[in-house]
Amino acid sequence: MALTVLLDLRLKPEALTGAPAMLRDILAGTRAFAGCLGVDVLVDSVDPAHVILMERWESVEADAAYREWRAGDGATELGSLLAVAPQLSMFETASDI
Fold it and tell me: Which first-to-last residue range defines the signal peptide (predicted)?
């Protein structure tokens, strides 16, 4: 079953100028990862330091493999941009509603 993942990021004010380039580089790897159906970047229209990554995955297993990769060989410097820890939420589409 497909999975939608929201990664809610709060960027440091001083990171706003460099964040787009770093996120582009990081997301190139995400988008190329097996099972990734796409990633959209949502920027708060009032607060540009509030960014949500909306990822779509073929399955829970594909997302889990990606998270494992990011925790190891695929680690990034994303944390250097963040004012607080990111919030991760995972959603499955309800087909009976």
Answer: none
Model confidence, pTM: 0.93
Domain region containing 31:
3-92
Q: 61-93: per-residue pLDDT in tens? A: 999 999 999 999 999 999 999 999 999 999 998
Residue at 80 is within a domain: yes
Give SS3 for 89.
strand
Residue 97 covered by a domain = no
- Residue 14 CB neighbour total at 10 angstroms: 11
Which structure tokens are listed for 83?
């004012």
Q: Measured between alpha carbons, how far is 54 from 50 in angstroms, rounded to an integer?
A: 13
